[in-house]
Amino acid sequence: MIEIHNIHKSFNGKVVLDGISGVFQTGKTNLLLGASGTGKSVLLKCIVGLIKPDLGSVTFDGTYFTNNKLDIRQEIRRKIGMLFQGSALFDSMNVEENVEFPLMMLTDMSRQERMDRVNFCLQRVGLEGTNKKMPAELSGGMKKRVGIARAIAPNCTYLFCDEPNSGLDPLTALKIDRLIKEITEEYNITTIVVTHDMNSVIEIGDNIMFLYEGKKLWEGTSNNILDSDVPELNEFIFANRLMRDAKKVEEEEERQKTP
Ligand SMILES: Nc1ncnc2c1ncn2[C@@H]1O[C@H](COP(=O)(O)OP(=O)(O)OP(=O)(O)O)[C@@H](O)[C@H]1O
Ligand SMILES: [Mg+2]
């Protein structure tokens, strides 16, 4: 479980995060949802320690992270897997080398152990046999899968994914979302996914935090997100016609249930 408490961050006097608190549950895909520029990526970077918040704290399974001693922060960092926006694979390395990289950096596994783990992770994301392919030979969806394999290779306890399905067609996006959710449940990982995609919300949103102008305006699940009375959230959700139609169907079902 990851807890954040009263996170504030400004850049050059411009407030980006304005006191955000919340809990991200273990074994769940926790979503950070919001429009472009609302501070989702900045919050994720504050949580992993890439950006230092001006105020507030982050706790990983009870261990205080922000401002703690370097060795304790490093110990936590070792347990974090990160899927960057755009996958961020190393172009000059093949698939196998990309997935092996964090194992070389973070573990003292032998070459054979590393290869076993690489092959296991590639198989887990449905990419067995692609070991020698270069990133340039892969489709967008395959690159995301390699990114996920690389993130989970060192047995991560925490997984962070920034816009994992941006730039993918809806079906491939769905497969990536489901893969992240499956892996989260299978290995009991605390996963945080940054997204502005309503399909992801409905498909994998166990816990959802809605950010608006640096504040958390709503939190809930995919089951109750269509019923909120937060105007900013509704404006965000129902900008999408499909969502408006889904809401109508839900209301109609409710009407039919009440005699
Ligand atoms: N290093 C930085 N220096 C100055 N301003 C920054 C920095 N990083 C982010 N910002 C600003 O913080 C605000 C929030 O950015 P952030 O990247 O968190 O948005 P986001 O919600 O992730 O948007 P998107 O959905 O487009 O990725 C933006 O106005 C951005 O310009
Ligand atoms: Mg972002």
TrEMBL record:
Keyword flag Nucleotide-binding: yes
Keyword Nucleotide-binding: yes
Domain of life per record: Bacteria
Domain ABC transporter: 2-238
UniProt GO MF annotations: ATP binding; ATP hydrolysis activity
InterPro entries xref list: AAA+_ATPase, ABC_transporter-like_ATP-bd, ABC_transporter-like_CS, P-loop_NTPase
Keywords: ATP-binding, Nucleotide-binding, Transport
The name this protein goes by in its record: ABC transporter ATP-binding protein
Gene source species: Pontibacter flavimaris
